[in-house]
Amino acid sequence: VYMVLAYRINLDSRSELERLAKITTDIPISFRITPGVASGHSEKVMTGGKGSKFGIPMNQVIDTYARAKDLGFDVKGIHAHTGSGGMTTDPFTDVVDVLCEMVNRIEEEVNIKLEFLDFGGGIGVPYRPHDPEADLNELAILITDTIQEETDIKTVALEPGRFIVCDSTVLLTKCVDIKEAGMKKFVGVDAGFNTLIRPAMYDSYHYVAVANKFNKAGVAKYEVVGPICESGDYIAHDRALPEMEEGDIVAVYCGGAYGFSMSSNYNSRPRCAEVLVNNGEAELIREREDFEDLWRHQIVPARLSK
Ligand SMILES: Cc1ncc(COP(=O)(O)O)c(C=O)c1O
Q1: Going by DSSP bridges, is the β-strand pair 29-34/75-79 parallel, antiparallel, or unpaired?
Q2: CA of 184 to the centre of ligand 1 (A)
Q3: pLDDT tens-digit series, residues 207-244
Q4: Is 34 helix (H, G, I), strand (E, B) or coil?
């Protein structure tokens, strides 16, 4: 059963198109293209550049829309996603230029009048205290002006993820170890890259403060590191913090995007609990995992459990 009115399928390749056609052509579709515009806080999350694994390469877009039409699909739109967490508006205006040009070419060359244009997600957020916020009003004006001037498109979609949820979440992690080694002072906390992988994976900055010492000034620079067995396991580097002691609670800000969802059980560590704070009241919304959860899906072959 296909809920034709409520759903459409956004296809990323010719092979997906052919595979879907074997199942049904009775569903609206759109295509993700590779616009040749990349953005992001790290190269690892830039998705729209030429040669990327994502989307239909520019030189195949017209043929792909034509093939979809021949197969009998109702092709409704065009989509691109340049990447995640870039802090400038240029990639959005650039990608909208590319999408508008393709909307017109698809109408002229394939005779398909598209209904919507989706320019993806990727709006960056301030992670550092003095980072500026993205000027969304300016962005909205630039984009809608271009779309109205260049095309007949009336429906514009965007897919912001990080922008909506990033600053909603603070990771609280306990100091379990204090160590001085050479010139460095280490604060060992009980959350590592199993809980928040962004620093280890992208060298991302997350602002940290000591939740039980908010009113105390920083007295020394610390490395805030996790319990994972790799030297790349860190939360914050070279941060001025008050005198640290075991039991202190380190608050790691902006953990709402790509935080819990990228967490893992690496080093056999159960995942953390999640608590919703609503009008000063704390509500548990996800239980802390326990050791049972680590082997819940494991199967011991009968021959080994005799
Ligand atoms: C296709 C697509 N759209 C939207 C997003 C959301 O990106 P962001 O959280 O940067 O807004 C992603 C993230 O990976 C994505 O792959």
Answers
A1: parallel
A2: 37
A3: 999 999 999 999 999 999 999 999 999 999 999 999 99
A4: strand
How far apart, in whole angstroms, are the C-alpha atoms of residue 294 and residue 285? 20
Ligand 1 pocket check for 160: Cβ under 6 Å: yes
Its ipTM equals 0.99
All domains of the chain in start order, with CATH: 9-160 (3.20.20.10), 169-269 (2.40.37.10)
Q: Can 229 be counted among the known catalytic residues?
A: yes
pLDDT value for 168: 97
Cα-to-centroid distance, 164 and ligand 1 (Å): 11
- Residues forming a β-bridge with 29: 9, 75
- pLDDT tens sequence across 138-147: 999 999 999 9
Q: What DSSP line would sit under 83-140, residue for residue?
A: BS-B--SHHHHHHHHHHHHHHHHHHHHH-----EEE----B----STTPPPP-HHHHH
Q: Which residue has the tokens 């508006």?
A: 89
Q: What is the pLDDT of residues 94-144, one digit of tens each?
A: 999 999 999 999 999 999 999 999 999 999 999 999 999 888 999 999 999
